[in-house]
């Protein structure tokens, strides 16, 4: 499995600056080896970073794309599902029974749900409110989605084993087709090696290693 090392920010580093989260991103490892397994079209660069401090896992997507599709008819699951977004999936084990999904669009709306094999989705489940925090921003060349997930919530969901979190990292990019309809290009860190697009499969996950 592909691995990504999540660097540790210690107490001394946290106290060294007034804005410790912002200042620590340059020390985090950058993950950029994404692929679009079901399309030969080029896609915009995605830079993912993460670090942890024993209390929280911090993550950041920076996507170098300014042509963003955002379905704003309402704040429903369907609306988020029809928008450009980034995604993190966390699984308890290779059986995917269960796994947990965070899909976040450029407006900071979150589609969070519990899932089981065969795309059995429980949209009534939500990540504990105080254990998840999301912010988004844009500049002239990119959009950014940042987040904080409490380590306690990850442990409560049985997602950390031997300082490892089995994780899927994805992006959905929407463009108009020849029929003037929006359709997605699916982009992932790990190539699931399936004939048709499918992130909800064991082969789409890698490992986040929480470094000491």
Keywords:
mainly beta; 41% strand; 10% helix; 212 residues; globular; 13-stranded mixed β-sheet; 4 helices
- Give the DSSP E fraction (strand runs of 2 or more residues): 35-45%
Largest sheet, in brief, is: 13 strands, mixed
User: Strand tally, please?
Assistant: 13
Taken from the alpha-carbon principal axes, the silhouette is globular
The span between the termini is 20 Å
Overall average pLDDT: 93
The residue fraction in helices comes out at under 10%
Give the radius of gyration: 17 Å
Tally of alpha and pi helices: 4
Reading the helices and strands in chain order gives EHHEEEHEEEEEEHEEE
Low-confidence stretches: none
Structural class: mainly beta
Describe this entry's structure for a reader:
The chain is mainly beta. Helix content is 10%, strand content 41%. The protein is built from 4 helices and 13 strands. The chain has helices at residues 11-15, 20-24, 77-81, 151-156; strands spanning 3-8, 30-31, 46-52, 56-63, 85-91, 99-105, 110-116, 120-122, 132-138, 143-150, 164-176, 182-188, 206-210. The longest helix is centred in the C-terminal third of the chain and has 6 residues, at 151-156.
């Amino acid at each position: 499995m592909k691995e990504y090392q999540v660097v540790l920010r210690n107490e001394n580093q946290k106290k060294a600056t007034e804005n410790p989260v912002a200042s620590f991103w340059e020390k985090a490892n950058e993950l950029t080896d994404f692929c679009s397994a079901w399309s030969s079209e080029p896609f915009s660069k995605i830079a993912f970073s993460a670090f942890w401090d024993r209390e929280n896992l911090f993550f950041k997507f920076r996507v170098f794309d300014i042509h963003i599709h955002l379905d704003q008819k309402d704040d429903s699951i369907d609306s988020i599902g029809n928008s450009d977004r980034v995604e993190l999936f966390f699984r308890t084990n290779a059986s995917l029974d269960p796994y947990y999904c965070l899909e976040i669009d450029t407006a900071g709306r979150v589609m969070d749900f519990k899932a089981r094999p065969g795309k059995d989705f429980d949209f009534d489940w939500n990540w504990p409110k105080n254990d998840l925090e999301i912010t988004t921003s844009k500049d002239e060349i990119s959009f950014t989605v940042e987040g904080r997930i409490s380590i306690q919530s990850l442990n409560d969901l049985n997602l950390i084993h031997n300082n490892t979190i089995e994780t899927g990292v994805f992006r959905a990019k929407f463009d108009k087709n020849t029929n003037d309809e929006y359709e997605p290009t699916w982009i992932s860190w790990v190539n699931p090696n399936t004939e048709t697009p499918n992130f909800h499969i064991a082969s789409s996950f890698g490992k986040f290693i929480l470094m000491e």
